[in-house]
Fold this sequence. Notes:
By secondary structure, the protein is of the alpha+beta class. It is 30% helix and 27% strand.
Amino acid sequence: MTATARFGTFDAERWWRPADLATLPAAPGGAAADDLDELLAAGCSPGDLLLTRRAPAREIRASLAECGIEFDHHAVPAPPGSPIERAVDAETLAGRPEMAPYAVLRDTVALAARLGRADRLPAAETVAEVNSKTWSHALVRSLGLPGAGVVVRSAAELAAAVGTRPSVVKDPYGVSGRATLEVTTPGVLRAVTRTLEAQKARVELLVQPRFDRRTDFSAHLRIDAGGRWETLGVQVMHNRGFRHAGSGPAPDALLAELAATGYGETLAAVAEALSAAGYRGPAGVDAMVLADGTLVPVLEINARQSPGLLSLLLDRRVRPHGLRCHLWRFDLKVPPGKGIGDLFAALHRLRYRGGTAPGVAVVGGSGLAAPGGRIYCALMARPGESATLRAGLLDALSAAGMEAR
């Protein structure tokens, strides 16, 4: 098996976004993304090298090992808020002929070029283009798919597109609820248009209906050079507002429903369009089924890795044991003096320890400390039992003195 170097910059959209674009008002910035790179361990095999900004906590390493995840590690002291690729010594990657970045930035291509491997990655400009919601919107329009929105390029166009209908306004490079606003009243619309007019900057926004959604899900693809592609799987998504909170296996009923609608043909068209644009690598296609049964097969496209893909990779590890993986994110309030060790102590009886017995694997959250932080937990559950395991996890968090926000 080919050894691979795994690393990434999780706020990739920040580096893809053109600097001259106007910003939406009061768009929440979300928690810092610098601590998420340890999640890439989900894809590691023995001999792979995981590069992260800090060494994973020993408890996290132990939890990953119980999932059968072993890897070499190297800490990269990258400045906060800067792409990790800028701080990677190319010599560190010697002996790992493959690179599996979370996302491809200009800095990623520059690092590959120092190793003589730039031809193995798509052009950074291409990756930025296909990650834009403007690009996916144009694809939805060209394919005649339901759920299309409207791209607006001025405050006046925004006001006309929204009108009096409840709408969702998105920055073309917003992610996980950041730079997404729900506009439901004339007062909110006026505040948005005033903010845009005051900036004297280029406007580019996507306006979509406020969907009455029944199920959010994502399909995960891998596109190779030469146009070959495969579907890796489908994951149901759990959202808090517009923010991703968790991913898990799609139920058989949803998969059957998608098969009956010809959803696979739509995925083929998306993969072919990405390939034709010059992209290769992982891609997640966010979608939904509405309350009335309508399928919106392409809401937006993330041409990078994603938490849903990482959940899928973990799921593959435990399916042979009769278990399924449900990956959840928890934002916690943490008392002074408490940290990741206290969480593991409270989880002792619920820990996943490999094999067929269900349990919880904490796969992200090494920096957990007061007054708060974020953890990612993989619930390895028997079919139909994930809710019970999640309730036990919440009880353990409470026992550790921590509170899920």
